[in-house]
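Batch manifest, entry 17 of 40.
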Amino acid sequence: MTYIEIGEWPLMQTAAQAVRTTVFVQEQGIAPEDEWDADDATALHAVLFDAHGHPVGNARLLRPTADVAKVGRMAVLPEMRGQGYGARLLQTLIACARERGHKEVCLHAQRTAEGFYAVHGFTIVGEPFDEVGIPHVAMRLSLV
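Output type: structure tokens
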């Protein structure tokens, strides 16, 4: 059994950092100074825990404008992928965005993950771009 906890950075930092360090810094080679930013302090964080209370997935929700929410730093540990955990995290944050009254959810998807987001209703906006040395594409989901 797994469960998701949602909270602000002071409560979720240790668990979120464990997942993000493994996936983004170690697996993908993103520099630690590029991984940690001021947005963590203002984001709502969702962390997925396994039955033993170990963090296995993470995502955050930002509020760039009153109408738009932004999903970011979505990650699931390599050995836990393919079990629907990413979908659960994404759906949890979409539900949070709806509860907050946002009209749209946007994100920057790594090109290798754009199909995952498309399955959840996100569509590509604009041209591909590079972010921290990884090809990305902007995507959005209308909530209205």
